[in-house]
């Protein structure tokens, strides 16, 4: 259900995600996307040019790069445990909110030429943010001497693996809550990286 104040561009982005997740990239037309958004097809072409450009815009608009950048700029308190909890929880909140979009990325990235590069933009942003954060924590004497980039990747891959596991129809580890996983993994990271 879309908000009445939502722009036609946002309606098109959301409609594209919904329909492509349901029918696949090649299974949905620009006419269907426009109809689902309640606009005409000309509006889609005027705002985005092509179906691929529309999908790329949806990924850029709703993926986590911008939100994570803002979090790192405004919400960190420079306490490793507290910050990693916030980063982990925010990551999973965004990923779960965008489940359909991420299912498209997994299913369609090999089909749509050049799309994988666009999809990978956001993890590269997060890796840079985490690496810089770990380096600053080290410079403040709050983190051991380690390979900051590898620690950033380890934290990301651990959380991404947990998210990808949750995408399956039947949970593999139904007896472990996401919150328990986040708390325990952050506790382990904090213990390992604190001088």
Describe this structure in words.
There is one protein chain. The protein is built from eleven helices and no strands. The chain is an all-alpha fold and 195 residues long. Helix 1 crosses helix 4 and helix 3 packs across helix 4. The protein is elongated and about 60 Å long. The protein starts with 7 loop residues before the first helix and ends with a helix.
CA-based gyration radius: 19 Å
Tell me the β content.
under 5%
Largest sheet: none
How much helix is in the residues? over 70%
* Poorly predicted residue ranges: none
Cα(first) to Cα(last) distance is: 49 Å
Count the E strands: 0
Order of helices and strands: HHHHHHHHHHH
Pfam families: TetR_N
DNA-binding region: 29-48
InterPro entries: Homeodomain-like_sf, HTH-type_TetR-like_transc_reg, HTH_TetR
Protein name: TetR/AcrR family transcriptional regulator
Please give a handful of descriptors for the protein shown.
11 helices; 195 residues; mainly alpha
Write a brief caption for the model.
The protein has helices at 8-23, 30-37, 41-48, 51-62, 65-74, 80-97, 99-108, 115-119, 121-139, 148-166, 178-193. The protein has eleven helices and no strands.
Describe the SSE topology.
Elements: H1 8-23, H2 30-37, H3 41-48, H4 51-62, H5 65-74, H6 80-97, H7 99-108, H8 115-119, H9 121-139, H10 148-166, H11 178-193
Helix pairs in contact: 1-2, 1-4, 1-7, 3-4, 5-9, 6-11, 9-10, 10-11
């Amino acid at each position: 259900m879309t908000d009445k104040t939502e722009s036609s561009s946002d309606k098109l982005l959301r409609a594209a995600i919904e329909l492509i997740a349901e029918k696949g990239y090649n299974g949905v037309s620009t006419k269907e996307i426009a109809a689902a958004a309640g606009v005409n097809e000309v509006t889609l072409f005027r705002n985005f040019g092509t179906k691929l450009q529309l999908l790329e815009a949806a990924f850029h608009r709703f993926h986590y790069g911008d939100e994570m950048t803002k979090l790192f700029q405004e919400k960190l308190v420079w306490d490793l445990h507290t910050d990693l909890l916030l980063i982990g929880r925010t990551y999973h909140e965004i990923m779960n909110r965008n489940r359909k979009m991420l299912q498209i990325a997994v299913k369609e990235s090999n089909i749509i030429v050049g799309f994988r590069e666009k999809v990978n933009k956001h993890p590269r942003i997060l890796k840079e943010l985490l690496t810089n954060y770990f380096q600053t924590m080290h410079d403040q004497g709050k983190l051991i001497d380690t390979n900051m980039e590898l620690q950033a990747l380890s934290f990301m891959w651990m959380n991404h693996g947990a998210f990808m596991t949750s995408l399956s129809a039947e949970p593999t580890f139904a007896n472990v809550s996401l919150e328990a996983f986040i708390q325990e993994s952050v506790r382990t990271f904090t213990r390992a990286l604190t001088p």
